[in-house]
Design goal:
This protein has 206 residues and is mainly α. The protein has nine helices and no strands. Helix 1 crosses helix 4 and helix 5 crosses helix 8.
């Protein structure tokens, strides 16, 4: 019985995600992708056209997954940062995909990511204008710092322990991210943070 085309595409995408995350675009091999998925490699060209187009499909799916798992909320930026931390911790290969994209497609921005980023900046700017978020930094800087904090201990991090660690260490790192983003974005004069200081392994108390 012939396999459903959606099932075939999904299987190829899963195998390609692992291959591209490990080897990048140039180093990936369609033979390995097809073998891992259990399909003839010709089906890659039938469904995706080329290896480069397959990478595009993989990367767009990864971005869509991140957007769905961590919806942006200008009224809860610490919560958004925590959701990003959780997603990157549970999907370390997607951080590697993003790095390969930056290395092998320098300056190229995925339209889906570009639209999402523009909407985040619009919402963040509006929140700053309404006094819900501190306006001491431009929204582009706030968003960049927030994402940087959320991914500090992500895959490939130079920080001690990187993405590894005990459950307590990981929880402490997440808490540090959430507290730090709260302090960064809380409107001036809004009062002290609600969260207690946290000891992060390898770091001084926040």
């Amino acid at each position: 019985m012939p396999r459903d085309s959606r099932t075939t595409k999904a299987g190829l995408l899963r195998a390609a995600t692992d291959e591209f995350a490990e080897h990048g675009i140039a180093g990936a091999r369609v033979d390995r992708i097809a073998a891992a998925a259990g399909y003839n490699k010709n089906l890659i060209y039938v469904h995706f056209g080329s290896k480069d187009q397959l990478f595009d499909a993989v990367y767009e799916a990864a971005v869509a997954d991140i957007l769905a798992a961590a919806p942006f909320d200008a009224d809860d930026l610490p919560g958004y940062a925590g959701a990003l931390f959780d997603f990157h911790f549970s999907h370390p290969h997607l951080m590697r995909l993003a790095r390969w994209h930056s290395l092998e497609r320098p300056g190229e921005v995925l339209p889906l990511a570009e639209r999402a980023n523009a909407e985040k900046l619009r919402l963040l700017s509006a929140a700053q204008g309404d006094g819900r978020v501190d306006a001491g930094l431009p929204p582009q800087a706030v968003l960049a710092l927030l994402v940087g904090m959320a991914t500090t201990w992500g895959e490939g991090s130079p920080e001690p322990g990187g993405a590894a660690g005990s459950a307590a260490e990981i929880a402490a790192r997440r808490h540090a991210v959430v507290v730090s983003v709260g302090r960064l974005t809380r409107p001036y004069g809004a009062g002290p943070a609600d969260a207690a200081p946290v000891e992060v392994p390898g770091r001084r108390t926040l």
